[in-house]
Amino acid sequence: MKAEIVSVGTELTSGDSLNTNSKYIASLLFELGIDVSLHISVKDDVELLKSVARDSIGRSDVIIFTGGLGPTEDDFTKEVVADVVSRKLVLDEKVLREIEEYFQKRDIVMSENNVKQAYVVEDSIALRNRVGTAPGYMFKHSGKIVVLLPGPPSEMKSMFELEVMPILKMENSSEIYTRVIKCIGIGESQLEQSIKHVIDESEDVYIATYAKVGEVKIKLISGKQKALERAFKKVVKLAEQNIFALSDISIEEAISDNLKSSKLKIGFCESCTGGLVTSKLTELDGASEILDRSVITYSNKSKMAEADVKYSTIEKHGAVSEEVALEMAEGLFRKSDIDIAVSITGIAGPGGGSEEKPVGLVYIAICTKNHKKAKRNIFAGDRKSIQRRAAKEAYNMIREYLIERDMFKVF
């Protein structure tokens, strides 16, 4: 089955909002073995949407529209699609009662224009909205499956998972098998080159690499489970040195899981990343089990006060240096009841760089009871990108430390 996703809203085409709905829907359709061939964003224009809807319904097996189901005048997706497939909009008393109850429970006066949302596409399944007021719709037209979903991500997600996915799973009977390998410490092009012969020889398995800041995901997909597993084992063997997970989790999640299983406590002393490394850990459940403390030592004065960095070290080598990074980690370790101390100091830019110490220069250090190490890095990109890459590399260094001590497990 081939699918396309049509996202409606001027806020998407103007760049005011990021289209996260398409990414979310496509990833779930992929798991069902439904091939997404097109993502289209359309501004709030009736004639343009009509043209897109006609083309989409004509060429794909599954067409999913998001947005434009609200009560205002610029919400007209339902009306346009109904017109394209020559169906009427009919008042659904059950849907109307659900909308009225939504407002009553919240002690809000229901506007007259909300009644518009109770008109459903003729001979369609009204999809229940557990979060908002706009119902979704699903129907077949000339053998094609047409789905209309609300635009707000929280409303769309629950509706798609609970209402749409089960039906699509029944409609698409072919079994699809997938495997994921997550890597770090290697670029996408280099990783792809290292597994190229497996990609070329695995005719029954689709193998692709996807880069995200500091990480690379390898995805394997096939309708033949044995062929998939053969290719998977070959890729794992070739990429083993850089693998941190065999599931779709982040490096931060992998480190968190390993620190928990080893019952280790960690602390951070951050300068140029300004707490970013720590925040990536505190976003995860159970961070209190492994995180003892974090200090942001942005100024030289704070580095000396909070991490016992010597004034003479800063004077001789500068705040952005291997020596200062090591003293930051060592100082934090001495002052804390932790097993691992990690420090970061660098130049995130856009200013502050020099020929000797350019923008993007970052030193990361680790200190433990019997181990200390600092690494010099040069990261490209703008300020935000440099900070994000530095944070990822800090977690990669923790991974490398745990591997050296046979304390890292790939989940």
TrEMBL record:
InterPro entries per UniProt: CinA (IPR050101), CinA-like_C (IPR036653), CinA_C (IPR008136), CinA_KH (IPR041424), Competence-induced_CinA (IPR008135), MoaB/Mog-like_dom_sf (IPR036425), MoaB/Mog_dom (IPR001453)
| Highest taxon, organism lineage | Bacteria
* Listed SUPFAM superfamilies: CinA-like, Molybdenum cofactor biosynthesis proteins
MoaB/Mog domain location is: 4-170
Task: Note the Pfam families from the entry.
Answer: CinA, CinA_KH, MoCF_biosynth
- Return the HAMAP family for the record: CinA_B
> What's this protein's family per the entry?
Belongs to the CinA family.
Name assigned to this protein: Putative competence-damage inducible protein
Q: Which organism is it from?
A: Andreesenia angusta
